[in-house]
């Protein structure tokens, strides 16, 4: 066993208590697995550098999860659950060492019926869709990291993505049907959270119980066609994207306008992104392609059109959207970062235009049309040329001053990262029940105060 | 052959020219089949009383349709296509005698693939859904007359219905993929109208060619649950219905708030409509029922919940919505009629409330939530206690003066019945091509002037 820098004093006893639950203590591996994609943010990159768990534990069943939870509670060891760690806020980075709980082994599909799947949190989302495809079904929503991300990781650390143009975000009633969680106590128990109650684990970064099963509603797995459409201007891509987003007869999964020069960083599909032009990346059901093209008319030029696929060998176009857009540029230029914006639905085009005009040198426009609260609007992950933390804060403040909601992606706590700058009251209250000692991902829900030790 | 009152002078020659295409000339039958449900309107009832074709012709193939069209063109005989004649504007009532073209024999399903069906116009919509069900598919939209109405009749005379809360109306790009029509000329030909072009036959009352095939996009056939929810007030039913309509994670097909005393006329389900209370009739996917109930909370009381079915033996709840609401009351009280309203999406609840308050004695509130142009709003078919035509006009004018769009259902022409009070320019232009002599359903497109005879 490699030496661990300042491990938790009870670590050895804890590991002994885990019996045959797989454990890795080799420091380089544990450090590597303790990271997520927080490095998109220069602020978080500085703050989270070097943070690591002491031990990686990989349970294969809910019973093993309970065994880990019991041991951590008994020895007072922090426990940070992780899926594929594709998040960008340090969700899965342990701030206080302890156990990194790898849930990727919980991949059982319990059942699929009536348009719903119940499965373990560790299933990779593209693998789940591949399993569902023969039944003509697929997940309603997925992040751009679908080929790596897990179902549980998305629920615990995400908010929406591809599919949100039809179903809205994970917060919408009905988009998470139920979650089963395990408490962190000397004698852990499982709790079934149904309906609204399942929101207690949504985007809670694993602070409110360890997810061991999820019941997720499904969508019809239409044959999807993905396209790149080139426009002379970003405003043109936005305007047509908005019209397409509002066209309820056109079945769609993704509408993402992206300003030049971002497409110049789109490695494999660079040849389909004409120099100097904005692009719109879309996923439309095959049955709606003809209508989509009729709506487009002469407004833009389709430069690429092909069946969408998650299979290896071809990068799905959704991997150039949402925060993958940022990633494509970061691969070439580490001097950029990004924001998370939500524009007002009743003046979405004007508002996006204002923000682009306000920061002509610093902001590279990039939106996704989504439904939010039943209305079509745009969220955005604009790429920002980073100068200083103060300037980044100022850019966000200017957005908010102009009616654009910001979910700050440069902070590590739930509270600071939410649009409302506070933790959900339900989540805080629930945490007291399920993690009274505050061992779950400590430091991420900063408004939580553990109960005094008995 | 029974004597026909004032038949077209060339009728005998025309019938001879039809060969073995089935023909009925028995006057009582022809008169009966020449009616639709225009009698919901006291105005139309007076105007259309006694209108009848001279002969009912029932082709079984497109070739036979062409034979009829050719004969009508040669002998200058009017030709009025009809599906199941479930419309309410006299769409299928021949104003000038001639041929009533019964298209209910064209029922071939050419193919089903990629989420699309291509079929004859005469298929009854519930029968088509029954055929599609084994593939997990169904039609996106249907009228409340689904168990009688035909696919072609809906396209030619309808605008939206059950399903419009998700897909909008038939006018939305993508909701009619293609239509094949036959022209009325001495040598008829068929024209394929794809995408936008297919709108040339939508709600044109059969004036712009005889539909012989339609390509319609499909939706997933979720197991649907239908419910009646009782509310103390119509405003309460509207407010919750609006919230449910905006909940994109809840998959739904119908949300119809209906004010008391309308539910007192709902024969079979009267026991589930509590005295004095408004009801909301909904169809929700089984997977979304739990979320729907969570959203409802204590706002209303579910008095009936059961699997939705078009099968004989049970009246589907959608037959208490859309214009079936009016019908249920008309069965008991012939003193009522109805309006067709579209409320502004940005103040829908206020606007509906204003109209209810403006006509407390005359207007019985009844709405359907729909998507229109990508926004959730309400259309309405309020029941009106009829006094005089002048008062009916005044009520409609007052709606329009308060920002509510009206499609007048008490007029028989396309122009007067549209929200914009004019025929679609595309439809008029197209009619010149496909029906140069103006023989198709003459009198319904009043702005059309036939070309001078050569």
Automatic annotation (TrEMBL), chains A, B:
Q: Which UniProt keywords are given for this protein, alphabetically ordered? A: FAD, Flavoprotein
PANTHER family to which the protein is assigned, alphabetical: D-2-HYDROXYGLUTARATE DEHYDROGENASE (PTHR11748:SF119), D-LACTATE DEHYDROGENASE (PTHR11748)
Against Gene3D superfamilies, the record matches this protein to: 3.30.465.10
What are the recorded GO MF terms, alphabetically? D-lactate dehydrogenase (cytochrome) activity; D-lactate dehydrogenase (NAD+) activity; FAD binding
Domain FAD-binding PCMH-type residues, every copy: 48-221
Pfam hit, one:
FAD_binding_4
This protein's name = FAD-binding oxidoreductase
Q: Which BP terms from GO are recorded? A: lactate catabolic process
What the entry lists under InterPro entries is as follows:
FAD-bd_PCMH (IPR016166), FAD-bd_PCMH-like_sf (IPR036318), FAD-bd_PCMH_sub2 (IPR016169), FAD-linked_Oxase-like_C (IPR016164), Oxid_FAD_bind_N (IPR006094)
* The keyword Flavoprotein appears for this protein: yes
């Amino acid at each position: 066993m490699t030496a661990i820098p300042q491990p938790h004093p009870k670590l050895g006893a804890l590991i002994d208590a885990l019996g045959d639950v797989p454990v890795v203590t080799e420091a380089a591996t544990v450090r590597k697995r303790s990271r997520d994609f927080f490095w998109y943010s220069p602020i978080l990159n500085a703050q989270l550098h070097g943070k690591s768990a002491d031990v990686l534990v990989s349970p294969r069943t809910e019973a093993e999860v309970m065994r880990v939870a019991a041991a951590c509670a008994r020895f007072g060891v922090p426990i940070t659950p992780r899926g594929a760690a594709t998040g960008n806020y340090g969700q899965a980075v342990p701030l206080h060492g302890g156990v990194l709980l790898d849930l990727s082994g919980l991949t059982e599909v319990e059942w699929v019926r009536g348009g719903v799947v119940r499965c373990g949190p560790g299933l990779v989302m593209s693998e789940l869709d591949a399993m569902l495809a023969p039944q003509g079904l697929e997940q309603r929503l997925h992040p751009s990291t679908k080929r790596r991300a897990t179902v549980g990781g998305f629920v615990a650390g995400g908010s929406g993505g591809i599919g949100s143009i039809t179903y809205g975000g994970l917060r919408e009633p009905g988009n998470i049907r139920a979650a089963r969680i395990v408490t962190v106590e000397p004698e852990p128990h499982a709790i079934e959270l149904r309906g609204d109650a399942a929101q207690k684990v949504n985007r809670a970064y694993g602070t409110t119980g360890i997810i061991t099963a999820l019941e997720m509603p499904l969508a019809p797995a239409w044959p999807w066609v993905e396209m790149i459409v080139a426009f002379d201007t970003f405003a043109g891509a936005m305007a047509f994207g908005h019209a397409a987003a509002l066209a309820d007869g056109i079945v769609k999964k993704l509408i993402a306008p992206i300003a030049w020069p971002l497409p110049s960083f789109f490695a494999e599909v660079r040849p389909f992104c004409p120099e100097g032009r904005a692009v719109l990346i879309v996923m439309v059901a095959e049955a709606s392609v003809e209508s989509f093209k009729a709506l487009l008319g002469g407004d833009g030029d389709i430069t690429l059109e092909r069946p969408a696929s998650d299979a290896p060998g071809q990068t799905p176009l959704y991997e150039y959207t949402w925060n993958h857009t940022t990633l494509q540029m970061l691969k070439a230029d580490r001097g950029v970062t990004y924001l998370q914006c939500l524009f007002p639905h009743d003046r979405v085009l004007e508002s996006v235009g204002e923000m682009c005009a306000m920061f002509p040198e610093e902001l590279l426009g990039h939106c996704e049309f989504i439904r939010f609260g039943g209305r079509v609007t745009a969220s955005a992950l604009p790429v920002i040329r980073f100068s200083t933390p103060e300037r980044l804060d100022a850019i966000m403040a200017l957005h908010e001053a102009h009616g654009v909601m910001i979910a700050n992606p440069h902070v590590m706590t739930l509270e600071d990262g939410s649009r409302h700058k506070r933790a959900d009251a339900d989540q805080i209250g629930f945490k007291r029940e399920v993690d009274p000692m505050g061992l779950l991902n400590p430091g991420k829900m900063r408004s939580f105060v553990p109960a005094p030790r008995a």
